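Form 7-S
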Amino acid sequence: MGRSWSMITISLPNWVTTLAVFTVLMLLIASVCAAESISLEEYLARVQESHPFFKKEELSKRIALKEQEKHLGDLDWIVSSNPYYVHEESTQDIGFDPHRVDQYGFDIGAEKKFWSTGGTLGLSYDITRSDIESNDLVFGAITVPAETSLFHENGLTLSYSQPLLQDRGGALSRLEYELQGYSVDAAKIIADENKEQFLLNVGDGFLDWVFLVEQIRLLENRYSLAREEHERTIKKHRQNLVDKVDVIRARSAVLNAEQNILLARANATAKQQELATIAQIDRFDEYVPEHVIYEFSDIKSIDDAIAELHLSSRALDAYELRISQLELQKTGALEQGKPRLDLILSSGIRSGDEEFGDSYGLNRPQYSASIIYRYPIGNRRATAEAIKAEIETAQVREEMSDTRLRLESGLRNIVSNMKELRKVLELNKEQIKISKEKTIAELRRYNQGRIELTFVIQSRDEEQNVQLLYAQNAITYHKLFLRYKELLDELLGRGDKE
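Output:
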């Protein structure tokens, strides 16, 4: 019975086999159509939206901005108050001079700095109550007792201090704020550079996934051919056209192909789960990569690419910012080296009376003007700061030149590799064509009984290896192109550079 059943299975009509193959193909096509595709650009956009790394880098920008804004506090109105009590007793008993004074008072004021001039405006109001006990006046045996008196005093004062040399125009007053402004711009550049480097690494992972999917496709094609070859060999063996060893060889080829598919699928699944975690995409196992692996973007000439590098590089912009910051530091140091010459003007009105209610007349005007001069002999601190800024500027310029050379070198390397790789890819296409022709020729010779099946299997394996090599080189080209865009600051987008 077992032998008869086997013969029935082998002798099924061709249309049944065709229908089975067609059904399997339709199921595969349906599963592919049901899957949602995602391109590299779409994936990188999702990563930027969801990954905490990008939120962290945005926070670093905001931290730097707030670090600058804290210097705006120098422009705030500063309000002060000073309630006080003073008790004094005289050490000499001179007639009618104060023996004891108890004074109560309260001062309230406001002060504001002006960066446009460097000046400071102040406004204050004070209330004072003095309780005075004087010494008795003694003439020999005659004593004239002194009276205890109360006196209330009020005053309103407006003052303005204006620098005439150092900090004239407020250069020093706003120096820290302006210096931090360069740090804010630098923080933005550093954050964008970090984000672009992150996208480059993630993009490499996506392209690895693309290759693994293409590898599975090629391996499945090899598996299909191996199964067809195995079925043909079984038929030929039953017809006594080939030896049993050819059946074994064909079966071994099927098992090898199946094993390679399982390994590739495991690697693709692992990479897909990694990408899903990075982008935080639910049901990412239902996605397939949408990437034309065998189409290649053109690149600029090396001269045009380097010209664009000089024009658009964030890394070079960061050095320019640092140089400008150091030049401003030097200007600040030179400003600090100037003598301090301040004009102070004050005016106000006061009034006082023994009666509290009569002390608010504010009918006694008062004015004052003074000039304060201050200058450290030698001025070594300011001089050292200025020289230090000059030396640091020279150092940064050298670092900038070094970075420019490294960027140019890296760009030349990538452009050269991409151009040479395009030649290799053309050779791979020719190799695939030749390997296919070789397989056809080997299969023809095998069917004629001129060679063993081993040569056909080897030829098919070589064809598959050439196809895999072509796919690997294609992915390498796409990775180089990704690096090329990252070097020209095109991966993250021009909008982030502004």
